[in-house]
Amino acid sequence: MIRFIHTGDLHLGLQFKNVSFDKRKAEERRLELWNTFERIIKRSIEESVDFLFIAGDLFEERYFTLGDIKRVRDTLKEAKNVEIIITAGNHDTSNIKSLYNMIDWPKNVTLFNTDGLGKREFVDKNIIIYGYSWDRGENKKDIFEGFQGIDRDKTNILIIHGDVFNKESSYLPLDKNYINNIGFDYIGLGHIHKPTIFSDRMAYCGSPEPLDFGEIGEHGIIEGMIKDNGTKIKFLPFSNRIFLEKTINIDETMGYVDIINKIRQADEGRELKRNLYRIRLEGTLHRDIDLNLDHMVKSLEDEFYYIELIDNTVIDYDLDSLEKENQDNIIGYFINEMKNKDLEDKVVRQALYIGLGVLMEGKVEL
Ligand SMILES: [Mn+2]
Q: How far does the centroid of ligand 1 lie from the alpha carbon of residue 80, in Å?
């Protein structure tokens, strides 16, 4: 039996420029990437797995230093009984200038070559691992050109950073059916940050620590075992925090305090302290309420680890007096026209408010 952990897309060193973090929060998240990396190594030691697969984008080469790569090396070295397999991706390319090649790696680390699909055999475990490292940031190479197939008397694993979703991708397009049908016991993929399990024999592990609001929900690692009767894997949530998007529905009966209180109830208190929230306010806002999002975020900051607010509300206008004031212009005609439809209907009402919002804005400019 072979036991393994599959990770990748850690992006150590990331600066978090895609998220509107302040300096302190960005620093904190950078540290958490390191912590999660170290927790993964610790887990592979404690669980005595045979292999740890790192399927690319281990670090951000733009921001990584020689000191950082030495820290990676020394951390990996601690898992001396775990065979660690690294295939570089598009953010941590392996070439003559790269940090990967400026240090000597410990015995338990295998960094795959960049000249086509390579393999490394572990005779005592009767296993062959196939892999490939990127040497540049974009890559359309067909690394399976001339591939001879696998030796079915052995256990065969493929570790690779690439895109199985888009045949036109500039990030190593892989033909999912083709690689699936080769007969690998496991294909450990990197590049797509959303954990995606196709089957027990093929998966994207996803980024173990999510990096922005494009990566909402649980993130973690994949743990698996390969026995004579097949492979079994499971996704293990492992991130320190998760990114979440929530929608809060507002109506015209709600005051400022009601709205703030409803935002506070977006999740359980313990979760608010832990996760990163993007909260959308939807619905109708009473015309007297001034939604100052910056102020709202400020008053919620103590209860949330991180909160972003997006205002998608429409203003609840006083239709009768507006119509009266504008009886000779398009605003009045519009209200009158809409009143002939069913204003109790939510969609009609919403359309009226959105239209009015546009017309009123135009009026101010005039
Ligand atoms: Mn990545």
A: 26
Which protein residues have a CB closer than 5 Å to ligand 1 (ion)?
A: 9, 57
- Name the amino acid, one letter, at 344: E
The rounded Å distance from CA 299 to ligand 1 centre is 35
Q: What distance in angstroms lies between residue 306's CA and the mean position of ligand 1's atoms?
A: 23
Contact of 50 with 82, CB cutoff 8 Å: yes
- Return the percentage of the chain with pLDDT > 70, whole number: 99
Residue where the block lists tokens 């009143």: 339
Q: Tell me how long the chain is.
A: 366
Q: Read off the pLDDT of residues 83-104 as tens digits, 9 standing for 90 and up.
A: 999 999 999 999 999 999 999 9
Helix extents (H) in 175-237: 176-181
> Is residue 10 within 8 Å of 37, Cβ to Cβ?
yes
Q: Where in the chain are the domains?
A: 2-237, 243-365
CATH of 2-237 given 3.40.50.2000, 3.30.43.10, 3.40.190.10, 3.60.21.10: 3.60.21.10
